[in-house]
Amino acid sequence: MSTAIILFMLGVVIYGVILNTREISLLDAMTEKGFNEMQHPAIRINRANYILELYEDSILVKSYRVSFGRNVHKLKTRAGDEATPVGEYVICSIDTATGFNKFFRLNYPNISDASDALRKGWIAQQEFDAIRTVINYGGCPEFNKTLGGNIGIHGIGRLNFIIKNLPFVYNWTNGSIAMSDEDIDELYSVIKRGCKVVIN
Hints:
8-stranded mixed beta sheet; 200 residues; L,D-transpeptidase catalytic domain-like; alpha+beta
């Protein structure tokens, strides 16, 4: 029985490897669209289709397969709910010294998230003001004990070869958006702080 399971998993990974070899590089995708550099990159993430799309202005350049928080069908509202937030964010910092290869931190909770929480009585006015001040100055909000934080786009890290080659989506994060180390490296070559990220 255990031999059959091992062979099945090996077959699944090999199938995933074959699927991944069909992907074109970002450089080739840019060339196909007529770009030799990206001056105004933007990201759109579709939770229903498990896709991250990279745009130059309004032109789609390349799509990537991604996974989300364990509670993928739930809207993020609280710390620890393991759901991915929905809304308009910006990348407020980029960390290259992380166990997930690279981490593009989003400014979650943003002003809209904080306003909604204040209206519902989940956070106090003082907490809202602190979040608003940090956002207005282009920073990353501190982890909020009620709303959570430290959400972003990151690689896989140590288990990259296995997870990236699964031919199905495995949602495993705390609410962040995960993609293969190779894909996050491609994004790193064109993405800077301040890049807009829309999640729907």
